[in-house]
Design brief:
Elements (H helix, E strand, L loop, with lengths): L8 H19 L4 E2 L1 H8 L3 H9 L11 E2 H13 L4 E6 L3 H8 L2 H4 L3 E8 L8 E2 L2 E5 L3 H7 L4 E4 L6 H10 L4 E4 L12 E4 L2 H14 L1
Parallel strand pairs: 3-4, 3-7, 4-6, 7-8, 8-9
Antiparallel strand pairs: 1-2, 5-6
Length: 210
């Protein structure tokens, strides 16, 4: 079993990139790849790739590279997991609707979005990309019925903490947070925050110093 506590956050963030790369190589019919090929495809230096993989043991062989099917199996069993996780989306406004219109299978093939929630009566009962929008009053009920562990949160900033509290109380263990606030959660809940404003500022800064 992989001890994820010893793995740096930067490495963990690169793992989905590696998985997607090996998935594409399998689709292309390739049996093996080198760290140099991975480096060129993902724009990550070879030393970083070898160091990332070293946290999980001997995944490749010198002079041979990495076996595509073996690495895919490893990612599925030890990192991604074999089970499909049911996910909900809290907040079906502009950003939430845009996410619903996107093909979630392109983001993660082990994710099943079972519903979205909003307090806007004009949205409740509608479907976006086949996903029904429920009233926020049904939040806890759907989470329990569908055995949901993960929530994507795109509610307005002022509703962020209250929504997170309800999600956690209902049994959610992972939150992808698109609100620009730091959420207070219990230790057993994992939160990954994406602040689009901060990301844009980082992009502008990187463009300026190039």
């Amino acid at each position: 079993m992989v001890n994820k506590k010893k793995i740096p956050n930067a490495t963990m963030k690169r793992l989905p990139l590696y998985y997607r790369y090996f998935k594409q190589e399998e689709h292309n019919g390739n049996d093996r790849v080198s760290s140099r090929q991975i480096s060129e495809a993902l724009d990550i230096d070879s030393a970083t790739i070898r160091r990332d993989f070293s946290y999980f043991g001997e995944l490749g062989r010198k002079g041979y590279g990495y076996n595509v099917s073996s690495l895919l199996k490893f990612f599925l069993e030890h990192i991604q997991g074999n089970d499909v996780k049911n996910v909900i989306l809290a907040g079906a406004g502009n950003l939430g609707s845009a996410l619903l219109n996107y093909k979630f299978a392109n983001i993660h093939d082990k994710m099943n979005v079972v519903g979205a929630f909003d307090n806007n009566k004009a949205l409740i009962g509608k479907k976006i990309n086949g996903i029904e929008i429920y009233s926020v009053d049904d939040l806890e009920r759907i989470i329990e019925i569908e055995n949901v562990e993960v929530a994507i949160m795109t509610v307005p900033m002022e509703a962020g903490q209250e929504t997170a509290d309800r999600l956690i109380e209902a049994g959610i263990k992972g939150i992808l947070n698109f609100t620009p606030i730091r959420l207070n959660t219990t230790p057993d809940v994992t939160v990954h925050s994406i602040d689009l404003g901060v990301e844009l500022q980082a992009l502008f800064f990187q463009m300026k110093i190039k």
